[in-house]
Amino acid sequence: MNAERSTRRTEGLHTRGRAARVVSEVLRATAEELGRVGYAALRVEEVAVRSGVNKTTIYRRWPTKSALVAAALRQITEEQAAPDTGTLRGDLLEHIQSMSAWASSPVGRGVLRMMLPERVDQEVEEIARNLRMENYARRMEPIRRGIARGELPEGTSAELVVELVYSPIVTYIMLTNEPLTEEHAAAIVDVVLAGARAGAASRDLSIYPRDKEGG
Description:
Layout: H1 2-8, H2 17-37, H3 44-51, H4 55-61, H5 65-79, H6 88-103, H7 106-118, H8 122-149, H9 158-176, H10 182-197, H11 209-213
Helix pairs in contact: 1-5, 2-3, 2-5, 2-7, 5-8, 6-9, 6-10, 8-9, 9-10
């Protein structure tokens, strides 16, 4: 964890020019290798070959395989961050379509196939847990914007809305390995938002297990 935290400070946000290109190429190659061979079989040497970046350079920035994989997956989720379209419904639909498009891509399908059986690996589980925490916080941002704009009533639980919108979508993507249609996504979002506007999403989730576990 300490190594991972230290590498976060040196990832893409603080790089420019050639350094930024190196980071992008290495993380792209890592995601491709992860989808191709999985976590256990992933070798930094293969990432170096695929990215055209010296292995020593990779280790200097990401000293462990788990730090490298976490950075690659984090970049993917940051690229899919929910936009600010001006409406909560628009934000959710655009974000869902971005998630679905990635999940149905060759790299996305490979990564998802890897994550399911390899979650028994403690390193993979820790990476997944940390990303889940970050994604959860990121997905609440548009909900909170919607509450601030008056699209949802004051007192609406952003946590509950996130759960109701994303849980069926993530389950669908993971189980079917198929892209979600716009009609399916819109149906889920519209049902959840209708209930939230009617005041049905005001339940306090402070006792929700995710809060207790921090993820």
